[in-house]
Amino acid sequence: MSQPDAPTGPPATPADDPGHPFARLADFVAVPRVAGLALSPDGRRLAIAVQTLDAERKKWLPALWEVDPEGRRPARRLTRSAPGESAPEFAADGSLLFLSARPDPSATGGAEPERALWVLPPDGGEARPVVTRPGGVGGFAVAADTGEVVVVASAMPGAADAADDERRRTARKDAGVSAILHEAYPVRYWDSDLGPAVPHVFWAGALPADDPAGQPPEPVELRDLTPDAGPPTGAGESVTLSPDGRLVLRVDSVPDGPAGRRDRLVLVDTGSGESRVLVDDPLADVHSARFSPDGAAVVCVRETLTTYAEPPDYTLLVVDVASGEVRDLTPGFDRWPSAPQFGAEGDAVYFLADDDGRHALFRVELGGGEPVRLTTDGAYSDLQVARDGSALYALRSAYDEPPAPVRLDPRATGQHPAPLPHPGALPPLPGSLHEVRATAADGAEVQSWLVLPEGASAEDPAPLVLWIHGGPLMSWNSWSWRWCPWVLAARGYAVLLPNPALSQGFGQDFVRRGWGEWGGAPYTDLMAAVDAALERPDLDAERTAAMGGSFGGYMANWVATQTDRFRAIVTHASLWDLDSFVGTTDAGYYWEKEWGDPLVEPKRYEQNSPHRFADAIRTPVLVIHGDKDYRVPIGEGLRLWYDLQKRGVPSRFLYFPDENHWVLTPGNAAVWYETVLAFLAEHVLGQEWQRPDLV
User: Fold this and answer.
1) Dist CA 172 CA 552 (whole Å)
2) pLDDT value at 11 more than 80
3) Quick one: pLDDT at residue 27?
4) pLDDT at residue 14 above 50?
5) I need a surface site. Which of 198, 297, 379, 648 has the fewest CB within 10 A?
6) H or E, element range at 140
7) What was the pLDDT predicted at 426?
């Protein structure tokens, strides 16, 4: 593809001021990041986790901060350690529990500390560890009324207790053994190998109080509630406790066919250890469960298993704990509810769902009726319900707002509350956010977000970058540090973020339009969105690029095989050979439901796999992949890179030996953006290639 007649830089913007956090990548990666939210039982304290760079600027460290629920006092920091702290949760007495691998000040010996459960007293003072396990603590749950605790921790097969577990781990290490013998599928998940240790659920009970004389409390004795948990997935990672601490509700992964899995709900009596299945649906995964305030009922998500003909569908179930009777709470609701929980009185359920490019908060009465949307713009998460019913709290973000804590009315509609004072607020962004709508070839409406840089005008139109989301069953609706369009806007690019067919939040039929036909409606929807955006005089139709990651990387590859309209393609963690991908990803059974067995039903592979159309690629391509990516294995990136090189397509390969599906370390994240910007500058702006210094 021809290049501009003369090299030209992007239009100057206020972001060129070195003081703006998006002007330099080193400043951008140093912006504090809010994640995680917990509300105290009395409703007077909010705890959030805030990630900041460590002193060497090599990793992000989470610390816990307190936020005033009334918004009157500034936030204050609660914890500070080199390993950091995460997963805050208040106990019934107001103490704050969290996970950390910080060293125990009272411990002796030089062993590297594992992640443990710590407690910070309600009236301040020093935090102390309360639950430890060989291999570390992976998660925990707290009984709302009693403060009793269960923890999730891995255990070696056959280990009788913690001492035996540690002995077996040490024996493997001393013998130099890293091998894992698998007897069932799957064998890994995202970026982690499964086994030989698997998650178990342990009863910790009431945690010991601080000794008035300052003596360390007795160690907590753990009791295994799931002694029969075995490979490949053990007792699972997701648990919740009934308010009175009598029952543990966990997600249990069970076989579904020769190499498939599905999730069901299992109740465990914390006193006797006896378990019983609460919900087991052979046609669906059941997950995301929460108890009612009185513990008599459970609300959960039912996600239908996909088939060759049908995508998943979601609804909320209310389940009677005593009888197991199940009732559909959201029949006919044409959105996908998630993260449900009961209101303070137990007469309503709050949940989140994608809706028209937003991730909104809904309320539905337990007695029935249509769900009511309570929020306008933004994407909500980490919902917390005040126990007196006076308020809701959540984190809210949008494409022009990083996550921040907010207070909400439990019943009012049309809400968009101001953030509570917190660390991590940004200065004005280098541009503006707009909404664009297009009409697809079949008449469907395609919604998009458009980030427009400052200075763009009809006289000086901005180059346009099409960013395609992953999933594919998701939508652009919230702030992203990994895919932050403002980094590009600070350099003069406009960024288009469309929600094409397969995106959720636009109804079941909108998803069906692209089911099993990724190269069909998703592609034509993207092109329709680009065409609609380029009708604006402040965008330059001659200087465009396309990029995406995961499914978005698949689509970037597909775009490269179908059109020459873009000057550059950036493809991250992308699917290239669908047959190869399905056989090597961490959960092949999930994708084969949609695509079929390639030896029996090859049609969708032949029609939709980008590698079959490699000869058509003329556009320069930047390939990016991490070696620890088990969701889209590195072989996809290697094969794509080889196919481009042998065809003489201008291309580069940014390879991360120690990153996974994402790029999680600050240095590599900065290099990622730096390389993408250099590639776009070369091919979109016509500038000379500038190889990033550190690669």
Assistant:
1) 41
2) no
3) 86
4) no
5) 648
6) strand 137-142
7) 84
**Amino acid making up residue 219:** P
pLDDT digits (tens, 9 = 90+) for 333-356: 999 999 999 999 999 999 999 999
What average pLDDT does this structure show over 659-675? 96
State the amino acid at position 239 in one-letter form. V
What is the domain count for the chain? 1
472: preceding bond cis by omega (within 30 degrees): yes
State which residues form the domain around 679: 436-685
643 inside domain: yes
Question: What distance in Å separates the CA atoms of residue 122 and residue 95, rounded to the nearest whole number?
Answer: 4
Residue 693's Cβ-count burial label (10 Å; 0-12, 13-18, 19+) is exposed
The full DSSP string for 179-200 is -----SS--EETTEE--SSEEE
- Give the pairing type, strands 137-142 and 149-155: antiparallel
- In the structure, what pLDDT confidence band is assigned to residue 12 with cuts at 50, 70 and 90? very low
In which band, very low, low, confident or very high, does the pLDDT at 174 lie, cut at 50, 70 and 90? Answer: very high
Domain assignment present for 158: no
**DSSP H helices in 126-223:** 162-174
How, if at all, do strands 33-39 and 568-572 pair? unpaired
Q: Tokens 């060759």 label which residue?
A: 308
Does position 18 have pLDDT exceeding 60, yes or no? no
- Rounded CA gap, 648 and 671, in Å? 25
Radius of gyration of the chain (CA): 26
Place of tokens 């890994």: 188
Query: Within 13 Å, how many C-alpha atoms sit on residue 503's CB side?
Result: 29
Residue of 670, 582, 687, 675 whose CA lies nearest to 633: 582
Is residue 40 exposed (0-12), middle (13-18) or buried (19+ Cβ within 10 Å)? buried
Does the structure show a pLDDT above 60 at 596? yes
- Answer yes or no: is 389 within a domain: no
The model's pTM: 0.94
> Rounded to 5 degrees, what angle do the CA atoms 169, 173, 174 make?
115
pLDDT-derived band at 23, boundaries 50, 70, 90: low
User: Residue 265: inside a domain, yes or no?
Assistant: no
Q: Which of 399, 480, 523 is nearest to 669 (CA)?
A: 480
> For the domain that residue 461 is a member of, what is the CATH number?
3.40.50.1820
Exposure string of 408-445, with b = 16+ CB inside 10 Å and e = fewer, is: bebeeeebebebbebbbebeebbbebeebebebeeebe
